[in-house]
Amino acid sequence: MGEPLQASRGTRDIWGAEILLWQRVEQQAREILGRANYQEIRTPIFEATELFSRGIGEGTDIVSKEMYTFTDRGNRSLTLRPEGTAGVVRSFIEHKRFQQGVQRCWYLGPMFRYERPQAGRYRQFHQLGVEVFGSDDPRADVEVIALALELLQSLQVTALTLELNSVGDLDDRCRYRAALVDYLTPYAQELDPDSQVRLHKNPLRILDSKDPKTQAILQDAPQLPDYLSPAAQAHFEQVQAGLAALGFTYVLNPRLVRGLDYYTRTAFEITTTALGAQAAVVGGGRYDGLVETLGGPATPAVGWALGLERLVTLLQKQGDATIPGPEVYVAAFGEGTAILALQVAQKLRHLGLRVEMDVSHSPVGKQLKRADKLGSKACVIIGETEAATGQILVKWLATGVQDVVAFPAGFAQPEWWREKLGTGPA
Ligand code: AMP
To answer: Which helix (H) or strand (E) holds 196?
Structure first.
């Protein structure tokens, strides 16, 4: 026998009580996004590498060092998607959906980045994301941000901060970039090594640096919001006014730039202090240039992505969910009982009950013990006599009381089962 295999570094299994939290999040997302008339889209897990290098930007960390890229047997360069937006945009261009007016959609699924794994940072992780295409109205920005906050509130996640910034339009960013490089160049030797590299490749990302010395140098650096054009400034003010009108509070963070190249104007993050270094739960903003960059018609867009592992960790901190056991356990033992057990279980499931059928060949006592351990309220007991007479036993595990019921005739009385199980009318 070989060594037991383990999940690959940076990946994990999601199961047990944790899966209930994932299901809860997914259900809430469907509900809340559905009410705002967002449509779900499922795009492929892998795409042509070029989609991401063009869409996300060659100078970004994701494209330069984090992509899972491989050549397939047909010699095509493919990449496991590191984020969801590029694939959604590719799909909308391919299906000419940008000709159909404003489009709202959401997606949920695994993303892949070759990052250094740590708490809250994985190589395969999951994002829930939304995108709105075809509107430059600040209300679209407000709507998507509000939906993220509503989703988090509906899950009772508290202690979150909405951090807001505007990174301006492309021209604004170019002017700011030049000013920032001018300011930082005399300090080049004092910056942390990553920031030194970024000074030429992607200087805006220096604003993200956690290095205390770099942070100190940045104290007096020029600030992005001072470089906004009047139009970008007006847009930003309307976004803030809209959020305030809906009762949401936010903190302005002039250093918030986000890791991807395609953002314009609104940039935001929803952060928490409960997760240590990995503070961002949601990140998003406007990306008016992306559709065109990827070969589509000029189309303004705004969206966000939420890290599901981080959200689920926050939910776990509020208390674990418990896995519900079967309401009824079907135990059978002896000759001629096997088929009857199958039929009884099927019938009970048709009544809408949660039913587990024993397939262990254990003695009846052991089967009853399992029923109890799983938290079942009732155990249907089918022995040889019951099979022969068509009268089967129902044992109520809390009291030990037993009922005799006929099967198949007279068995399917949903009211009787519901009353006995205390589940009320369906
Ligand atoms: P981004 O696409 O980088 O803007 O990320 C959006 C959100 O996805 C972040 O705020 C995180 O919650 C989550 N996220 C990003 N990268 C990872 C990762 N490697 N592991 C877990 N969650 C991640």
So the answer is: helix 193-201
**Sheet-wide strand order for 77-80:** 46-48, 77-80, 68-71
- Domain holding 292, by residue range, is 17-169+229-318
Q: Is residue 186 part of a domain?
A: no
Residue nearest to ligand 1 atom 1, measured at CA = 283
Q: Whose CA is nearest to atom 23 of ligand 1?
A: 307
Going by CA atoms, what residue is nearest to atom 11 of ligand 1? 307
Instruction: Report if residue 266 sits inside a domain.
Output: yes
Indicate if 129 and 264 belong to the same structural domain: yes
- The lowest-confidence range among 12-21, 248-257, 415-424 is 415-424
**pTM recorded for the entire structure:** 0.92
Residues 256 and 376 in one domain: no
Residue at which a domain ends, from 300, 318, 336: 318
In a domain, 156, yes or no: yes
Helix 49-56 with 85-94: angle, nearest 10 deg: 110
Q: In angstroms, rounded to a whole number, what is the distance separating the alpha carbons of residues 138 and 242?
A: 8
Q: What ligand 1 atom has the least distance to the C-alpha of 121?
A: 20
- For ligand 1, the distance from its centroid to the CA atom of residue 257, given in whole angstroms, is 15
Q: How far is the CA of 307 from the centre of ligand 1 (A)?
A: 5
Residue 184 domain-assigned (yes or no): no
* Ligand 1 proximity of 113 Cβ (cutoff 6 Å): yes
Task: Mark whether 284 and 340 lie in a shared domain.
Answer: no
Give residue-wise pLDDT tens across range 163-184.
999 999 988 988 999 999 999 9
Average pLDDT, the chain: 93
Please report the pLDDT score of residue 309 as a whole number: 97
CB 279 within 8 A of CB 273: yes
Give the Å distance between the CA of 183 and the centre of ligand 1. 30
Q: Final residue of a domain: which of 277, 300, 318?
A: 318
Distance between Cα 306 and ligand 1 center (Å)? 7
Per residue in 52-66, pLDDT (tens digit) is 999 988 878 899 899
Ligand 1 atom 3: the closest Cα is on which residue? 259
Tell me how far the alpha carbon of residue 255 lies from the centroid of ligand 1, in angstroms.
18
**Does residue 368 surpass a pLDDT of 90?**
yes
Domains of the chain: total: 2
Strand partners for 332: 382
Please give the Cα distance from 135 to 141 (Å, whole number). 9
Query: Same structural domain for residues 27 and 139?
Result: yes
Mean pLDDT of 148-172: 94
- Residues forming a β-bridge with 47: 79
Query: pLDDT tier at 425 (50, 70, 90 boundaries)?
Result: low
